[in-house]
Amino acid sequence: MEPAPSVAAELWQPHHHQHQHHLAVAPLETSSVVTEQSKGSRGGGGGGGGRGRTRPRRDAAPEDDDSSKVVSTSGGGGGGGQDSVAPEAKDLKSMKANDNNGNLRTEAETNSGNSSKDANKSDTLPEPPKQDYIHVRARRGQATDNHSLAERARREKISERMKLLQDLVPGCNKVIGKASVLDEIINYIQSLQHQVEFLSMKLEAVNTHMNNGIVTFPSKDFGAQPYNTAPGLTFDAQTTGEYAQGSSSEWLHMQTGNSYERVT
Amino acid sequence: MDGKRTTPPHPNPNPSSAALQAGAAAAAAESSKARMLAFHFLRALSRIHRVTPVRRRTRTIRRAAYSSMARAAGPRRAWSRALLGQARARRARRAVLVRRRVLTAAAPAPAAGGGGGRFIAAGGETSAAAAAAASRVLPPRQAGEPPRADALRRLVPGGDAMEYCSLLDETADYLRSLRAQVQLMQGLVDLFSCQ
């Protein structure tokens, strides 16, 4: 709601300079751009007045000329709620945020037209809040029924998840194209699974060697035995004291015994 | 169980598991999920070294790795549920085989009823697995899905019955978990084998 009066206030400023043109042009504008809201009509009239400033000799512009101007600049003053303007696809293209309406004053018309054509993302329309729906802007030539909207939302979700996956897989940023990204992901998962297999073999080998090396090992003499073969293992005197407790061993055996079915 | 919150389980006079306790203390990461992974995996590892005969250990260690991954991820994820279901079906099948051996050795009447119940349960699970494998032929509702997604479905556990969108989500989570598991195992190997 707030942008509409402020932008309309912005747009009203040029009209102070050109009162005669405004008076000539505005009724044509308001009649061509049929709106349900006064604010919308003001925005439409303001946009038309803004256009009228740069083309002062267009007083006798007929309505269809104005509507074509709306289309060609893609959205100037037609920023008001113009759901009822006839060409619907172009109409959706011309529905813009009202800050672009403000830009029309400062930039040339063609430039603003190009920039507005480029900025075709699905934004929510700030001005007419008369419905509870989210207004989604369609790109040029795209349909706007429910199915394609859902399709588009789904495709965006998929692309965003692909981006997440690209960040996860190292070296995937350089690849472009969905197919090769998928290939990279598949290769990475396969290599990780092979690594799990290989490491499980190594773990088994390492542990059996360690078990064989420490064959006769009474529990109390833990601290006395030299553990120099594995310097990574830190054994304090305190922890070795705990090893001698029989209750802790029973606790562990009980735990692993109970979880026999749970852990494969 | 409070063991999940504390970093290492209780120390054990058994030498290999004692080394494993130290390994747990050294390899425990900051995040709770990595800690849970380490806890489950190390406990399974110590049990394997105590119980399992040598010739089948590699396979069992690999299965324990996936099971501990699934347990650390929790039941909220489709892939972890699928992995735990696979492990459960495998155990049921093994129990059925054991029962069958017991029955053929000596055939008492009450054991037949219990064994029959086990057969039916295992048969149900295996047929469900077969049905899931067959349903891969008919893809579930994929519109803009590339043909390579089929290979992805085979790699990620439980990926057959998912839409493409959720498949990507599950893949990301599975990748993170898999990477954590590989890091843990690599750290353990480094720890145990510095000579």
TrEMBL record, chain A:
<feature type="compositionally biased region" description="Polar residues">
    <location>
        <begin position="29"/>
        <end position="38"/>
    </location>
</feature>
<keyword id="KW-0804">Transcription</keyword>
<keyword id="KW-0539">Nucleus</keyword>
<dbReference type="GO" id="GO:0003700">
    <property type="term" value="F:DNA-binding transcription factor activity"/>
</dbReference>
<dbReference type="GO" id="GO:0046983">
    <property type="term" value="F:protein dimerization activity"/>
</dbReference>
<dbReference type="InterPro" id="IPR024097">
    <property type="entry name" value="bHLH_ZIP_TF"/>
</dbReference>
<feature type="domain" description="BHLH">
    <location>
        <begin position="142"/>
        <end position="192"/>
    </location>
</feature>
<dbReference type="Pfam" id="PF00010">
    <property type="entry name" value="HLH"/>
</dbReference>
<feature type="compositionally biased region" description="Gly residues">
    <location>
        <begin position="41"/>
        <end position="51"/>
    </location>
</feature>
<protein>
    <recommendedName>
        <fullName>BHLH domain-containing protein</fullName>
    </recommendedName>
</protein>
<keyword id="KW-0805">Transcription regulation</keyword>
<feature type="compositionally biased region" description="Polar residues">
    <location>
        <begin position="97"/>
        <end position="117"/>
    </location>
</feature>
<feature type="region of interest" description="Disordered">
    <location>
        <begin position="1"/>
        <end position="129"/>
    </location>
</feature>
<comment type="similarity">
    <text>Belongs to the bHLH protein family.</text>
</comment>
<dbReference type="InterPro" id="IPR011598">
    <property type="entry name" value="bHLH_dom"/>
</dbReference>
<dbReference type="GO" id="GO:0005634">
    <property type="term" value="C:nucleus"/>
</dbReference>
From TrEMBL, chain B:
<dbReference type="Pfam" id="PF26576">
    <property type="entry name" value="IBH1_N"/>
</dbReference>
<protein>
    <recommendedName>
        <fullName>IBH1-like N-terminal domain-containing protein</fullName>
    </recommendedName>
</protein>
<feature type="domain" description="IBH1-like N-terminal">
    <location>
        <begin position="40"/>
        <end position="88"/>
    </location>
</feature>
<keyword id="KW-0805">Transcription regulation</keyword>
<dbReference type="InterPro" id="IPR044660">
    <property type="entry name" value="IBH1-like"/>
</dbReference>
<keyword id="KW-0804">Transcription</keyword>
<dbReference type="GO" id="GO:0006355">
    <property type="term" value="P:regulation of DNA-templated transcription"/>
</dbReference>
<dbReference type="InterPro" id="IPR059002">
    <property type="entry name" value="IBH1_N"/>
</dbReference>
